[in-house]
Amino acid sequence: LDEIDIEGYISQLLKIDPKITKMEMGYELVLFILMDFIPEKYVVTGQGADELFYGYRRFIDNPRLKNDTYINRLFNVTLPREKKMAEYYDKELITPYLSPGMLKIRHYITREDNIEENRNKLILREIAAKISLPEEIYNRNKTAAQYGSGINKYLLRQSDKIFRNE
């Protein structure tokens, strides 16, 4: 992070979406910076997997929480913003989890089939096992990109300066 002009990326991201929140900035900034460094035109993301397969920790912690709100937000806020971010770099997002076929079966993807005790996305883990992916890949604990990259720490330190109007 020391060699990257994070403030420049933040400034540009705020121009793309002036309504972006502090929380959204964390995960969107990681994608935005990555798109600048990726030479390929097409960027394949896992967008939608957490929403469809109950991958967020909050689904484990709150058994009554449904995924509809998160799916709606994904389509109405997150995806349009990310498409603009991709266009800024002349890229195109490929989102396999949001393909028409996946969306057609989304109502059959239940919470009960995806959460057991402290584990989530069980359907995806089962598919990964069946296609012989290494267990250390499909059973590892996920760390959100904004935390693993250090972006979140940076944003916490700079939050007041970045989000004066919030």
Commentary on this structure:
The chain is mainly alpha-helical and 166 residues long. The chain has a single domain (6-162), classed as HUPs (Rossmann fold, 3-Layer(aba) Sandwich), CATH 3.40.50.620. The protein has helices spanning 6-16, 22-37, 49-52, 57-61, 68-88, 100-105, 111-114, 122-130, 135-138, 145-148, 151-162, and strands at 42-44, 92-94. It has a two-stranded parallel ribbon. The radius of gyration is 17 Å and the shape is globular. The mean pLDDT is 91. One of its GO terms (biological process) is asparagine biosynthetic process. Pfam families: Asn_synthase. GO terms for molecular function: asparagine synthase (glutamine-hydrolyzing) activity. Residues 81-152 form the Asparagine synthetase domain.
Please summarize what this structure is.
The protein has helices at 6-16, 22-37, 49-52, 57-61, 68-88, 100-105, 111-114, 122-130, 135-138, 145-148, 151-162, and strands at 42-44, 92-94. By secondary structure, the chain is mainly α.
Defining key terms:
2 strands; Rossmann fold; mainly alpha; 166 residues; Rossmann-like_a/b/a_fold
Give the SSE layout.
Blueprint: H1 6-16, H2 22-37, E1 42-44, H3 49-52, H4 57-61, H5 68-88, E2 92-94, H6 100-105, H7 111-114, H8 122-130, H9 135-138, H10 145-148, H11 151-162
Parallel strand pairs: 1-2
Helix pairs in contact: 1-2, 2-11
